[in-house]
Structure formats: structure tokens, C-alpha cells
Design brief:
Blueprint lengths: L2 H18 L6 H8 L3 E11 L2 E11 L7 E7 L5 H17 L5 E7 L8 H17 L8 E5 L5 H15 L26 H14 L2 H7 L9 E5 L3 H12 L4 E7 L2 E4 L6 H11 L9 E2 L13 E4 L18 E3 L8 H9 L3 E3 L1 H4 L2 H15 L8 H19 L5 H7 L5 H26 L6 H20 L4
Parallel strand pairs: 3-4, 3-5, 6-7, 6-10, 10-11, 11-12
Antiparallel strand pairs: 1-2, 2-4, 7-8, 8-9
Helix pairs in contact: 1-3, 1-16, 3-16, 4-5, 6-8, 6-12, 6-15, 12-15, 15-16
């Protein structure tokens, strides 16, 4: 296990213990919430080319206080049991914070996806799915995977096909066995952008808080705020694009594995994504300067840092170099516990991962509900609402004698499509969850940061479930 993975697991445990010490629950209950309920470690052979490779993989169900358990599957050569346990624990608390009725889980396959072609990846994914089926570690009512680092809708489609083939029509809700699927395979509109859009909604709430902005010397609002983003994957690209287009933020720096680029006038994220796809690198993007040291993205003079890559990227050795006033943890565990202590002393606001990147699991929940209902959102009421709004506009026109322009009328009378409802539900979730965390942060005198407040919110909800079950009367 690498030192970064060790510090990630250690950070999760230390942050949990810090919050638990402020609560008055029996030690046995706290131990139950802290521990992973089930760990499945497997090794299976897959024929790649003319040779067989033995693949190591994991699936961890952290908490079964609510079912199904929920969590992504990560493909990475760095995956190990401790990392997957830490990620599964975060999923439990993440689901609790945003009031998604799942327990936490996580999966990992210890491969580097870049070293395999599509055919090999399909073989590995399907064999991994079979291993999960054998031990009942997948199913719409037991454990529902999703994409994570190194996986996407393609892999989820392979998982779905393997599961439904094995069930052979015997399970009516089989398509709910996995989320993050392609649209034509019972996916949901808005899932791809969900985590990045959730980062936008959560960051917007914090930046609109006048008292917090005054404390760190910033004006309220996202408009004109400068952001530096680490990671131009799915989360980082959507977060940057939406913060810029809908929030008016200025993306001044982007860091990826090939380097870090900077432009104080702002970087167009959509154009950068297209440039990287064509050139295989962000370096050389017109108008930008490449930093001599890639890791110096943490030192950039900006208002907000958005680490959207892997865990433990801001640590004890570089935390003192951070100039940003706000850090939005779009990735899982990007700030270690030691780094957080340094940053909090500097007055930096850290928006914790277990809240700010919960957009993905929130919309995964919507997809799961759609799969169980066997009907897309908006199908029943879109036209009814459109007709009702149209009748209202007609009534106003008749009573005022004034006409509404066709352009304005088309906006007013439009019924909500699935993506509109998904975005609305996500926005509602992120706003409500932030104010739950903020309430704890403001109300409890001993709580000095948002992460501890978020953990307290989560532990309270999970503990209440255990107690109402009668497990801990």
C-alpha cells in the first residue's frame, strides 16, 4: 500500500473519530458505524491475448443499515483493500448527508485500463461481475455499483448485460442492478454531468454565504471568482464548464497528468476538452502558460481550488503553499487529515468530499428509481403541465389585452423534460444538504469546520437507523 493510500484511510478514520467524539452514542454503536460490514477480496483468471492473467479485485459493503448498498467500481493499478474500505465508508456517509436511502459500498479492480484494449476490458468486467453475482454482491435490492475512476457507462453496460443474462428474465427489476448506464440501456439524462453539476450547486451555496465570505475576505457570489481545477476528467470538466457558464466563474488554471496550464484571463473548459482530445494533452492550449512543476497547481493564486482527481493530493508537505480561500473537494479524499489541520489554521474553507461530490450518487438514486418504476421521468406530466401553463398565459392575455411574444411564451409554457427534473432534484438535494451541515456548523460550538459538521450529520442519521431497527436500543 502506498503512503497516499495509507493516509487516505487514516484521514477517513481520524475525521470520523473527531466527529464521533462530539456525539453521545454508545461506543458499540460507533464501532459498528465505523467498521466495514462485508469485504470480498477475489482473484480470478482472464485470458488476455494468448496468456492468462490473474486479476485482483474487491467489493466492500461498508454499511447495510439501509439496502441496497451503493458505490462505484474503480479500475486502477493502485487499488487495494484499504483504499476500497475507505471509499466505501465515505459512500455510507455521503448517502446519509444527501438523504439517499442507501448503505455505502465500493468496488475496485487492480488494473490500469490504459494497458488493455476494449476486448480485454470487457472480459475483465464481465468476469468481475460474475464473481459479484456468485456471492450476492450485486443486485437491485442488495448492492448497486456505478462508475468510478477508470470506468464509465460502457463498463456499466457490460455489467448490466452480464447480470441480466445470468438472471435470464427471472428478475423484473434487473436493470436496477447498476447505475451510470448508457441512455439506451436504461440510463438517465443528466447522470454524466451529475457530480460536476453537484460541485457547482454546492460551491455556489458556500460562495453565497455572506458571513463565510466576509471571514475569508471575499465578496459573496460565484461571479468573477477565480478557480483552479486539478483533473480534467468527467467531474473536473463538467464542474469547470458549469461554474463558468452558469456561475460566471473564471477558470484560471487546469492541471492534468501531462502538466499544469495557467491563464489569468480565463480558460474555456469546453474548448480545452476538445483540444486535449485532439492533441492528447492540455499543454500548448492557446493563450496558456505551462507551469515548470506540475504539482505547483496548489500554489496558484486563486479564490477556489477544485481538486477533482485522486485522493491525498493536498498533504502536509504542500498545504502551506495553498493561496486559495476555498477548497472544493470534487475528488474523494484529496486533502489529508494533516493537511486539513494546516489549512484550517490558515482560515481556508474546505467543502468536504462527502458533500460536494455527492451529485453522482444522488442522480444514481434517481436512475435506480427510474429503473424500478420502468418509466422515464416527465412522461406522465410533461404535456399536462405544458397545457396548463399555456392556458394560464392565454387567460392573462385575454384579461390584460396584451400579447406575450412567441419566444417568451415558449419558455413559460414548456413542460419539464427528464433532464430538467433531474437537475431540479439535484439542486434541491445539494441546497438542503448544505443547510443541514451549516446548521450543525453554526449551532455546535465545538464544531470548527464543515467536514466535522458533515460527519455529525451523517453519523446521526445512520445511528438513528440502527437504533430504530432495535439493534442498539
Amino acid at each position: 500500500m502506498s503512503s497516499k493510500q495509507a493516509s487516505f484511510l487514516d484521514s477517513v478514520h481520524r475525521n470520523f473519530d473527531k466527529a464521533a467524539d462530539l456525539l453521545d452514542y454508545p461506543s458499540g454503536l460507533i464501532s459498528q458505524i465505523r467498521a466495514c460490514n462485508a469485504i470480498y477480496e477475489m482473484n480470478f483468471p482472464v485470458k488476455i491475448g494468448k496468456k492468462y492473467e490473474v486479476i485482483k479485485a474487491f467489493r466492500v459493503q461498508h454499511s447495510q443499515h439501509r439496502l441496497p448498498t451503493k458505490g462505484g467500481i474503480r479500475f486502477s493499478s493502485m487499488v487495494n483493500k484499504d483504499e476500497v474500505q475507505a471509499l466505501a465508508a465515505l459512500m455510507t456517509f455521503k448517502c446519509a448527508i444527501v438523504d439517499v436511502p442507501f448503505g455505502g459500498a465500493k468496488g475496485g479492480v487492480a488494473i490500469s485500463p490504459r494497458k488493455y484494449d476494449a476486448e480485454a476490458l470487457e472480459k475483465i468486467t464481465r468476469r468481475y461481475t460474475m464473481e459479484l453475482i456468485r456471492k450476492n454482491f450485486i443486485g437491485p435490492s442488495s448492492d448497486v455499483p456505478a462508475p468510478d475512476y477508470g470506468t464509465g457507462s460502457r463498463e456499466m453496460a457490460w455489467i448490466l448485460d452480464t447480470y441480466t443474462t445470468f438472471k435470464n428474465g427471472s428478475e423484473i427489476d434487473a436493470v436496477g442492478c447498476v447505475t451510470g448506464k448508457p441512455l439506451n440501456q436504461n440510463g438517465i439524462r443528466g447522470r454524466t454531468e451529475a457530480t460536476g453539476r453537484g460541485v457547482f450547486y454546492g460551491l455556489r451555496e458556500v460562495l453565497n454565504d455572506e458571513a463565510e465570505m466576509k471571514r475569508v475576505g471575499l465578496e459573496p457570489g460565484m461571479e468573477g471568482k477565480t478557480l483552479a481545477i486539478q483533473g480534467l476528467g468527467n467531474v473536473g470538466s463538467y464542474a469547470g464548464s458549469i461554474c463558468s457558464k452558469e456561475g460566471g466563474a473564471l477558470i484560471v488554471a487546469v492541471s492534468e497528468i501531462e502538466g499544469t496550464i495557467y491563464d489569468p484571463k480565463g480558460i474555456d473548459i469546453d474548448k480545452l476538452v476538445k483540444y486535449r482530445k485532439a492533441k492528447k494533452s492540455i499543454v500548448g492550449f492557446p493563450g496558456t502558460k505551462k507551469l515548470d512543476v506540475r504539482e505547483d497547481w496548489v500554489k496558484i493564486d486563486c479564490d477556489v481550488l477544485v481538486p477533482a482527481a485522486l485522493e491525498s493530493q493536498i498533504h502536509k508537505k504542500n498545504a502551506k503553499s495553498v493561496k486559495a480561500k476555498v477548497i472544493a473537494e470534487a475528488a474523494n479524499g484529496p486533502v489529508t487529515a494533516d493537511a486539513e489541520a494546516i489549512l484550517l489554521k490558515k482560515g481556508v474553507i474546505i467543502i468536504p468530499d462527502m458533500y460536494i461530490n455527492a451529485g453522482g450518487v444522488t442522480v444514481s438514486y434517481f436512475e435506480w428509481l427510474k429503473n424500478l418504476s420502468h418509466m422515464r421521468f416527465g412522461r406522465m406530466d410533461k404535456r399536462f403541465n405544458q397545457n396548463a401553463f399555456g392556458n394560464l398565459v392565454d387567460l392573462i392575455e385575454r384579461n390584460t389585452g396584451k400579447k406575450v411574444s412567441n419566444r417568451d411564451k415558449s419558455i413559460i409554457v414548456r413542460g419539464a423534460d427528464e433532464v430538467d427534473l433531474v437537475r431540479s432534484g439535484l439542486e434541491e438535494t445539494m441546497i438542503n444538504s448544505f443547510h443541514q451541515i451549516k446548521d450543525v456548523y453554526k449551532r455546535k460550538r465545538k464544531v470548527q469546520d464543515y467536514r466535522t459538521a458533515a460527519f455529525i450529520c451523517a453519523i446521526d442519521k445512520v445511528a438513528n437507523d440502527y437504533m430504530t431497527m432495535g439493534v442498539f436500543p
